Amino acid sequence: MPEARGQAKGNSGVYVQGRYEIQVLDSYGWRVPGKGDCGAVYNVYAPLVNACKPPLEWQTYDIFFRAARLDAEGRVVERARLTVLQNGIVIHNNVELPGPTGGALDDREGTPGPLLLQDHGDPVSYRNIWIQHLPLKGSDDYAPHG
C-alpha cells in the first residue's frame, strides 16, 4: 500500500497470549518510530530502531515471550517480558510489559492464551509461523560434552 499513510499502511498486529500486541505496519524509512509504528508494543514501547525492509518485501519477527508469573492466589508477582527481533535486528530487549495492550482478549495475565493475527482489512500476509515452547528455566546441572 505505497500510497497509503500512517495506520492505513498494511496495519495488522501479532497478539501474544491474545493480550500483548506487537504492531505490524509499513513504517519503512521512518527515521524515529513511535509507539504505534511497526514493531512497537502497541501504545506501550516504541521499537529501539526502525528495522523495516521496503514495502512488498517479506519482514520477519522473532518474538521471545515469557509469561507473567503468578503466586498461589493468582496474583501477578512477575510481569510478562519479551524480546523482539525484526529482520534479525533487536527492537525490544527483555522489556517488562506493564499489562495487556489495547484490544486484548482479556486481562488474565499469567494464564495461557492464543497467538492471534490482527485483521484491519489491509492486505497483509503471514507465512512460516513457528511456535516453540521453552522450559521455565535451564538445567542447574553441568553436562560434560562427550
Task: Give a written overview of the molecule.
The protein is mainly β and 146 residues long. A hairpin with a 3-residue loop joins strand 1 and strand 2. The chain has a single domain, classed as Exo-inulinase, domain 1 (Jelly Rolls), CATH 2.60.120.560. It has strands at residues 12-16, 20-24, 61-66, 69-70, 76-78, 81-86, 89-96, 116-119. The chain is globular and about 55 Å long. The N and C termini lie far apart (54 Å).
Q: What is the strand and helix layout of this fold?
A:
Blueprint: E1 12-16, E2 20-24, E3 61-66, E4 69-70, E5 76-78, E6 81-86, E7 89-96, E8 116-119
Antiparallel strand pairs: 1-2, 1-8, 3-6, 4-5, 6-7
Quick recap:
0% of the residues lie in helices and 27% in strands. The protein has 146 residues and is mostly beta strands.
Using the coordinates shown, work out and report the CATH topology: Jelly Rolls
Q: What's the CATH superfamily, by name?
A: Exo-inulinase, domain 1
Report the helical percentage: under 10%
| Cα gyration radius (Å) | 17 Å
As residue ranges, the low-confidence spans are none
- Largest sheet at a glance? 3 strands, antiparallel
Compute the separation of the termini in Å. Answer: 54 Å
Number of helices: 0
CATH architecture: Sandwich
What is the mean predicted local confidence, pLDDT?
A: 91
Shape: globular
- The secondary-structure class comes to mainly beta
